[in-house]
Amino acid sequence: KNEVEQSPQNLTAQEGEFITINCSYSVGISALHWLQQHPGGGIVSLFMLSSGKKKHGRLIATINIQEKHSSLHITASHPRDSAVYICAVDTDKLIFGTGTRLQVFP
Amino acid sequence: EPEVTQTPSHQVTQMGQEVILRCVPISNHLYFYWYRQILGQKVEFLVSFYNNEISEKSEIFDDQFSVERPDGSNFTLKIRSTKLEDSAMYFCASSVQGAGYTFGSGTRLTVV
Q1: Which tens digits make up the pLDDT trace of B25-79?
Q2: Lower CB count within 10 Å: N or C terminus of chain B?
Q3: Are the beta carbons of A86 and B37 separated by less than 8 Å?
């Protein structure tokens, strides 16, 4: 069983839609990270969470430590949000989920 | 904003050859990591490095792999005798404890 599970694996949306990506994990962690990977391959850190909720622009990330679950929300999605979104948990190293490929169409 | 720099961006090598992938971490970061991503798969941990020594390594990081910090700024990953299955994107990352990670843009290694 994977230590980090993400859903859905693929997501297609129309511009303006509200997007939710989910992440569940099964190990003890010090933090959870949401990352973005564009087609060129580079990885960008979006959020680091150890509790509660964080917001940056149209992106919101939440974590429930007791349930070992996190969500990434994108409000008013835009085609430029199209990317792979990856959940990774921090156990003195990062353990990555398989990613969610998001495509937003105009 | 400070960056982690990786070179080269692409490397093609023949099977059995040695390759060295280079990384310049952010200057005040103390923890360094190598990860790899085989095409179509998830990112996997290879090795972490702190205080000039390996702090943890994965099962993937066998005797073919080594890491060094040769001059206090560069952080290198060496693969001694490359195999076809070493073809992947290799990412370097650095961090300050308790803070986030900064990733380099990756080196795409193709073994032919």
Answers
A1: 998 888 999 999 999 999 999 999 998 899 999 999 999 999 998 887 899 999 9
A2: N
A3: no
Q: Closest residue of A to B106, CA-based?
A: A42
Number of H-type helices and E-type strands within chain A: 0, 11
CB contact under 8 A, B44 and A96: yes
Q: Which long-range contacts (CB under 8 A, 24 or more apart) does A8-11 make?
A: A8/A100, A9/A98, A9/A99, A9/A100, A9/A101, A10/A100, A10/A101, A10/A103, A11/A100, A11/A101, A11/A102, A11/A103
How far apart, in whole angstroms, are the C-alpha atoms of residue A72 and residue A81?
Answer: 13
Cβ contact A93–B91 (<8 Å): no
Residue B67 distance to chain A (closest CA, Å):
16
